[in-house]
Amino acid sequence: MARYRVLIDSEDEKGLVYKISKIFFEQNLNIISNNEFVDKVNNKFFMRTEVDGDINSDALKEKLQQILPSNANINIKLPNRKNVILMATKESHALGDILIRHFDGELEADIKCVISNYDTLKPLVEKFGIPFITVSHEGLSREEHEKRILDVLKGYDVDYIVLAKYMRILTSDFVKNYENKIINIHHSFLPAFIGANPYKQAYERGVKIIGATAHFVNDNLDEGPIIAQDITEVNHAYSWRDMQQIGRDVEKVVLSKALKLALEDRIFVYNNKTVIF
Amino acid sequence: MARYRVLIDSEDEKGLVYKISKIFFEQNLNIISNNEFVDKVNNKFFMRTEVDGDINSDALKEKLQQILPSNANINIKLPNRKNVILMATKESHALGDILIRHFDGELEADIKCVISNYDTLKPLVEKFGIPFITVSHEGLSREEHEKRILDVLKGYDVDYIVLAKYMRILTSDFVKNYENKIINIHHSFLPAFIGANPYKQAYERGVKIIGATAHFVNDNLDEGPIIAQDITEVNHAYSWRDMQQIGRDVEKVVLSKALKLALEDRIFVYNNKTVIF
Amino acid sequence: MARYRVLIDSEDEKGLVYKISKIFFEQNLNIISNNEFVDKVNNKFFMRTEVDGDINSDALKEKLQQILPSNANINIKLPNRKNVILMATKESHALGDILIRHFDGELEADIKCVISNYDTLKPLVEKFGIPFITVSHEGLSREEHEKRILDVLKGYDVDYIVLAKYMRILTSDFVKNYENKIINIHHSFLPAFIGANPYKQAYERGVKIIGATAHFVNDNLDEGPIIAQDITEVNHAYSWRDMQQIGRDVEKVVLSKALKLALEDRIFVYNNKTVIF
Amino acid sequence: MARYRVLIDSEDEKGLVYKISKIFFEQNLNIISNNEFVDKVNNKFFMRTEVDGDINSDALKEKLQQILPSNANINIKLPNRKNVILMATKESHALGDILIRHFDGELEADIKCVISNYDTLKPLVEKFGIPFITVSHEGLSREEHEKRILDVLKGYDVDYIVLAKYMRILTSDFVKNYENKIINIHHSFLPAFIGANPYKQAYERGVKIIGATAHFVNDNLDEGPIIAQDITEVNHAYSWRDMQQIGRDVEKVVLSKALKLALEDRIFVYNNKTVIF
Known about the structure:
The structure is a homotetramer.
Chain A: E1 2-11, H1 16-26, E2 30-39, E3 44-53, H2 57-67, E4 73-77, E5 82-88, H3 93-103, E6 109-116, H4 122-127, E7 132-134, H5 142-153, E8 160-163, H6 172-175, E9 182-186, H7 198-205, E10 209-216, E11 226-233, H8 240-263, E12 267-270, E13 273-276
Parallel strand pairs in A: 5-6, 5-8, 6-7, 8-9
Antiparallel strand pairs in A: 1-3, 1-4, 2-3, 9-10, 10-11, 12-13
Helix pairs in contact in A: 1-2, 3-8, 7-8
């Protein structure tokens, strides 16, 4: 007996819940939790079910394939520890938050290493016994720098890459290797203040609320599917550095929240958006 | 063809989703939206499904009864306009918010009348062509006053009574006539500051956040099942009257939210708690 | 004895608080509340003080002028009822919220009339005994339409114009007549989703939080000084119409909040930003 | 030239701002920021001013004493690094958050040591080179246990003690040694759910929002002056352990926020409440 996550996304058609739950019933699986969503506009069906039972994954998948539309995606997973690589630059708050949670056993993840273009955070990371790999961008073209990072990444079986305030833009060529696998924290309430120095932009604009956005990085930076957002209030007395400081508390919580959703297989991506169960 | 809401709560047992969705499938119903929740601790199953189709309600209910545990509750409803009675005292913000929404056609409800122990709000209510009935408590015992209100209420087929800042305590005898049908707004973040003058209590305690709570009134005031809550920030510079003023914006939005959830048949009550879909 | 609001903004220089409070002291004024802010980056000083006392406004102003930099702005005001014109199109939530507050006596304002390009809201407005003036844009150029609105406005001594979901863009020529006097509610978390249909834009982008922004309209629509913002959470299950519906609760509260700040002389504008006390 | 914080609280009387700012002006001090608050109900005056200048603290204090009511409190401080002792039990989130901020240089504090009744967190704390002192309560009376903790504390010149999820109740005898110096995080939205297991209480009550409260510990646990609060939304699907998990993100941010306010001398305490600038 084990607890499996069954993840299905598919074209919608009548009777899907019935047909799927029939299979679960016939296989004598116990449904622990079940979430469905149908996007009527795009005729898409999403389902995440946790089941307890004695499963032959391959057999179950085959049965599901028989009753689902042919282009359906079916994933049957045991809650395993996923392999995560962190990337950062100089700020420690987002990285540190993940390191503490990891130390605490809160994350279903093994953090394989931290990659940075500076060695600023090395002393922090090494406290936790995690390899810290500096890949300096000094004197390198963007392509050459990314190639060196890719060389490091290839040494691991990567499930997710988390950009914990990694302050360099990644090229499309880089990210296409890891579609829906790179999670970034952008320090604004996207789509406001895309690009550099969002806190300075927010200060200049005189906003009364600032935010942070965790999203997958696909193609264009800051334009990938949004996973989680949160905000905090500011006022005229905040300098942009004050906004940056208070914004960090939002950034780290939002990024860790997004990472946990990913680790728990709660995110579906389509049409550059997310369905989150 | 019409859109029905099928509401089921029941003891949980294996295969319920399968058995229910099988009936929907065999009846050729199209599932528009579906929400389920299983409370594993109490072994309770809740389901709210919107289906399109050509339904014989009684026949469908009978089929569902055959496959559900014998003590299951099954409701099959067309989205109808429910009969709502508002009760208020002197403050206009919560009442006015509902009147505007009603005027706007936002609520699936007919507001049959407003009952008040004062006539302060009569000019406002009558603008909207809604009967305003003053039932003064002057010189009456609580029981006698409530009896007069009950006499008014008996003239209507009441679905919900909304206490839009009705500032008198209702007795158990009164509320037992309308179990899970009386929605109150309490001007604090329950269970903090139960009872009278919660803003004064909040001021005295020096809290940094105040809130409001919409809940069903069953037996003990302020202790019924919570439907919705929201908060707003305050600080040392707020007098209790300032808190009261800013709190009104939270109160009215929370109460209207709770009313809409009720009108859309989105609330299940059990164990003095709510499941909200 | 009366309570005055003394509003000062000025270049900053050493000793301003001392020099101003000296005058208050010598005039035997009692300070009820006092707020100051210095923008060090732009060397600007802002102060709002409520004082009780027996004041000759002109004499007090003259004394303040003598000790303040020559280009300082000094306003000494009794809390009077300001003249407000509302403009709306077809939606009633923001307009209705202001009407109820006005009816309730919550606003330091006389609502002189409501101007709309449709007559949809006439029945609502007239309930409250407020003149409703339809200025249709049918068959008119933008300039001609605005000229007709200006003709109406010229009949009043206008303190503030509130765009309570007035769905037409105002030209620069129009708004320059009312600098920092037109308050708009934009149904997004500006600067995200500038322009038309922000809820549709938000839906397409897949955001997890939506918001509303109240701002002064100067020159470019949606780019004026921000007064107040608030947000609410959404998720993948929200259609853009659901977002619109829930967004209305944020819009109306934010707009009314901004209006109250204006009526209480709590807003200073500079550099396209606001200082709010 | 240095930047000082001048903290004054006093009975209120007419002319205080004038008299104080006169002294600042005559001493040729430059006001960087200034906050005042007058509690009219209790006739109390509070002021926090940051000034740049060449100060003789004692002389300045003497001058202020001459013009202030005799029972006024006057503190003139350089922003120094305060001595902080952390106390914790087994949970790492709140402690870890402070450790990361400390490592990052975000806090004006030297963390002298961590005291715990278990050694669970020793590996985490020692990573950061901070002494970890286990004071087990096993087999000891409460008084004896506290005496041992006091013996440790006496070895330090303590400015603040932070209870970062220290799960034992401190006696009045203990806390009276550190009035307004012990900051606790209570894992509920006080005054709701005082006492043990607040998440379980919140779950049982069926609340829709949970919170956390940072407060000073004086006399009765959970009843001291509130410094900061924040909340997060929950729903029927949350078990109490889910609430506990998500609540941790609120707890740690609120506790760190309160600590920073204390370190920056932004908190005044009176009448079991706080004024926060």
